[in-house]
Amino acid sequence: MSVSDLFKPLTLLHGPAMRNRFMLAPLTSQQSEFDGTASEFDQLWYEQLAESGYALIQTSAATVEAGAIAFERQFGIHSDDHLPGLTKIATAIRQGGGLSAVQLHHGGHRAKPAVGGIPAPASDNTVPGVRAITTREVERIRDSFIAAAKRAQRAGFNGVSVHGAFGWILSEFLSPHLNDRTDKYGGSLENRARFTIEVIEGIRKACGPDFQIGWRLSIERYGLRLEEMRDITAEIFDKELIDYLDLALWDSAQVVREGTFQGKTMLSIFTGLPRKGVRLGVAGKIYSGRRAAELLDEGCDFVLIARAGILQRDFPMQVKANPMYQSPEMPVTADYLRRGGLSERFITTMRGWQTFVKPGS
């Protein structure tokens, strides 16, 4: 396919179509207020993004409960007090012509007490001195995901993306390494996936047929098994439980190093599955229009732009104007990011990423 194919529309199972194949990945900015309320910096950031040509913009990870918080100044959607800010963001994105989704997040065992988080491990032995959450507590958190989705709908978002990656709570429950439960949420793969399935199905029931549901999945670290992640994804595709899969890889070209699929790209394990009407996209070191187009050739329906979107807010428009567009090389100076519209809070966050911000700048 050519770069021009990136600008073809893409229908989804529910709700409006994407106007092109560029989705903004959920980016951690840590620029919200301490209670999770959208700050003026959040508003300015999403207003910039709304004019940048993306088909769908995901927010940064938003807490579904106050105790779900995993890092300072995390975006929130656990209270009706967050609705005014959320509504402004959804409105800005809609006025820019794009679709919008709130990424729903719970820190699980990685919730951070120093900022008000309450660790919620699947097992007794994951966090020293903290017992596994009870079956009733799992069900409460499930219902908090669903309530947060309803809140996103009230704010005017087209949908939500359920965060099931990076060892956060849903990913944690999928992992046989982190989940040794003996109730209905532990043991077999079916039981370990029950939490995720109940969240997704509950959102669909609560929010109706026009609301879009994405699912972010990672397959590295935290004891996740590639074969199992493939199997549960195949089931979710077959039942068309979601509108799109957001496959979060560190590098979209990663190759499996061992096991059943050794030598194949991680992406190919999922693009090879029958997906019916579900759409599949990938994130991971997509820095050019050419690489984005290659990923369509490799079986993706869309691409998720992450670091490249921080380096250059209007990445899709840059690619449209110049099919050979390539992101600036990292590290970049803090002043470069300031000129591009990043707040000091966001720049501070990016200093924590190795090789992103030039030291001393």
CATH class: Alpha Beta
* Rounded average pLDDT: 97
Name the helicity range. 25-40%
The CATH architecture classification is: Alpha-Beta Barrel
Cα-atom Rg, whole angstroms? 19 Å
Which band does the percent of strand residues land in? 5-15%
What's the order of the H and E elements? EHEHEHEHHHEHEHEHEHHHH
**What class would the helix/strand composition place it in?**
alpha/beta
The number of domains: 1
Total helices: the number is 13
State the strand order across the main sheet: 1-2-3-4-5-6-7-8
CATH topology: TIM Barrel
- Total strands: 8
How would you characterize the largest beta sheet?
8 strands, parallel, barrel
Distance between the termini: 40 Å
Spans of at least 5 consecutive residues whose pLDDT stays below 50 are none
Shape: globular
CATH homology group: Aldolase class I
Task: Describe what you observe in this structure.
The chain has 13 helices and 8 strands. It has helices spanning 40-50, 83-95, 135-155, 169-174, 189-192, 194-207, 226-238, 266-271, 289-297, 307-311, 315-321, 334-339, 344-351; strands spanning 22-24, 56-63, 99-105, 159-164, 212-217, 244-248, 279-283, 302-305. The protein is globular and about 55 Å long. The longest helix is centred in the middle third of the chain and has 21 residues, at 135-155. It has an 8-stranded parallel β-barrel with strand order 1-2-3-4-5-6-7-8, surrounded by 5 helices. The protein is α/β, with parallel strands linked by helices and 361 residues long.
What brief labels describe this structure?
single chain; 361 residues; alpha/beta; TIM Barrel; 8-stranded parallel β-barrel; FMN binding; oxidoreductase activity; NADH:flavin oxidoreductase; Aldolase_TIM; oxidoreductase
